[in-house]
């Protein structure tokens, strides 16, 4: 009895190996491997990545443009022309840069090797977000090969510095003539992976504030005994206590909201404490750096006033500096009054794709796009995938990657086929400011 069982299981094993090998040699997988192998760590020379995209654009005979608003920070624009270039276009955005990765941090394989083991590709950028760039390209290439004519122009844009805050990429690009020429109607940007069957669809990003609070006090010999109210550390303790009390209040909201909706709470983290010169000297100053992501209904002016009050109460001689102070970006309307939402959600429904509209805990380039007045969605088709963006051993199941390509085919075809008359001239009618 046991004999046939072994034969069957050996056959299944062999079949799985054959399937895995076939998937690994899929041209789209090879392209992703080649792209991940280009080390585009932030501030690296992006020339090889630009050359990679030029080669792909040339292979399809597509207009290819590099916009370099800041030297060393190229923005790639690839045009897939629709039949009516006079109406607004679809912008498929992604970023070329990735966060640093070092083998010695515990990577199973070199982070820029794109090594595939058991059907899973390991490498920096496999989730964030080189997979999406290749999926956009492959989806458009297949639509073209299948003879599908899109009504609207589709642009692939590839940014150089999303991970650094977009100061040299998306932010100036949105102000440029080159961007105006694209006549964008809607932008797609990155989403995230979660280990759930649904795919998150971001319609708003949180506001990022990073502040440095510096407390000044008496500097003295370590054997002296000034009161807490006079020392830098005593004042900083007051500041920390106030921020952590607020953090507890927000944490309660966070636990109620769960992982899938970060909109209702403000996250606060004390990420750096600097100060001190010697073990036996009371420091003249100590500084604290907080990273704060404002909940979507928080009024910025009121929140700033609150912070000022906490600091004033903590003691004298305390200074506050904003390292990063973004303003609220509006939410994209997620109802059928927004034709882009309607096209996106109906394409998803047609292919039985469970999507979950939500606000992410972090933020993406899409916040700048919405702030500039354009509706935008963040979406990366990586269901049932552990969240490994910026993590050691960032990796992606190549089956999940390949399934994302027909998903984009459906979504892109639907978005680029919205009739001209269905889209209002005033795109801001598809945006809503939630903290007003
Ligand atoms: Zn990203």
Automatic annotation (TrEMBL):
Entry keyword annotation includes Oxidoreductase: no
GO BP terms, alphabetized: amino acid metabolic process
Stretch forming the signal peptide: 1-20
Location in the cell: Cytoplasm
Amino acids binding Zn(2+) 2: 128, 163, 390
Keywords for this protein: Cytoplasm, Hydrolase, Metal-binding, Signal, Zinc
Superkingdom per UniProt: Eukaryota
Record-annotated active site: 97, 162 (proton acceptor)
Cofactor note: Binds 2 Zn(2+) ions per subunit.
Keyword set includes Zinc: yes
Main location: cytoplasm
Gene Ontology terms for molecular function: aminoacylase activity; metal ion binding
InterPro entries: Aminoacylase-1_M20A (IPR052083), ArgE/DapE_CS (IPR001261), Bact_exopeptidase_dim_dom (IPR036264), N-acyl_aa_amidohydrolase (IPR010159), Peptidase_M20 (IPR002933), Peptidase_M20_dimer (IPR011650)
Enzyme Commission identifier(s): 3.5.1.14
Cofactor(s) this protein requires: Zn(2+)
Binding site for Zn(2+) 1: 95, 128, 190
SUPFAM superfamilies, alphabetized: Bacterial exopeptidase dimerisation domain, Zn-dependent exopeptidases
GO CC list: cytoplasm
Family recorded in the similarity comment: Belongs to the peptidase M20A family.
Name of the protein in its database record: N-acyl-aliphatic-L-amino acid amidohydrolase
């Amino acid at each position: 009895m046991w004999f046939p069982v072994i034969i069957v299981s050996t056959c299944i094993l062999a079949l799985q190996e054959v399937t895995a090998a076939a998937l690994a040699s899929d041209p789209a997988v090879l392209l992703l491997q080649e792209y991940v192998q280009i080390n585009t760590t932030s501030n690296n020379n992006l020339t090889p990545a630009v050359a990679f995209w030029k080669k792909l654009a040339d292979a399809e005979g597509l207009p290819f443009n590099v916009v370099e608003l800041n030297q060393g920070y190229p923005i790639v624009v690839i045009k897939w022309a629709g039949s009516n270039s006079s109406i607004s276009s679809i912008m498929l955005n992604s970023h070329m840069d990735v966060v640093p990765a070092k083998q010695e941090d515990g990577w199973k394989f070199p982070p820029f090797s794109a090594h595939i083991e058991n059907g899973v590709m390991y490498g920096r950028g496999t989730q964030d977000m080189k997979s999406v760039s290749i999926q956009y390209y492959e989806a458009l290439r297949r639509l073209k090969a299948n003879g599908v004519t899109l009504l609207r122009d589709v642009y692939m844009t590839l940014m150089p510095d999303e991970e650094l805050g977009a100061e040299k990429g998306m932010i100036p690009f949105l102000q440029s003539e080159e961007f105006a020429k694209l006549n964008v109607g809607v932008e797609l940007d990155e989403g995230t992976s979660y280990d759930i069957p649904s795919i998150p669809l971001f319609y708003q990003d949180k506001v990022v504030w990073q502040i440095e609070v510096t407390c000044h006090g008496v500097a003295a010999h370590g054997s002296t005994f000034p009161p807490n109210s006079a020392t830098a550390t005593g004042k900083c303790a007051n500041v920390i206590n106030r921020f952590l009390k607020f953090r507890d209040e927000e944490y309660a909201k966070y636990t109620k909201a769960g992982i899938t909706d970060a909109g209702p709470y403000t996250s606060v983290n004390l990420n750096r404490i600097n100060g001190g010169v010697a073990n036996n000297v009371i420091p003249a100053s100590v500084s604290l750096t907080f990273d704060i992501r404002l909940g979507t209904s928080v009024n910025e002016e009121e929140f700033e006033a609150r912070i000022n009050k906490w600091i004033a109460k903590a003691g004298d001689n305390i200074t506050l500096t904003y390292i990063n102070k973004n303003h609220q970006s509006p939410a994209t309307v997620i109802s059928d009054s927004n034709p882009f939402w309607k096209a996106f959600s109906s394409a998803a429904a047609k292919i039985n794709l469970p999507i979950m509209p939500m606000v992410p805990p972090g933020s993406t380039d899409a916040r700048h796009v919405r702030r500039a007045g354009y509706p935008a969605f963040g979406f990366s088709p990586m269901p049932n995938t552990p969240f490994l963006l910026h993590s050691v051993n960032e990796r992606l199941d190549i089956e999940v990657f390949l399934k994302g390509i027909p998903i984009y085919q459906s979504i892109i075809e639907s978005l680029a086929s919205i009739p001209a008359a269905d889209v209002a001239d005033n795109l801001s009618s598809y945006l809503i400011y939630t903290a007003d």
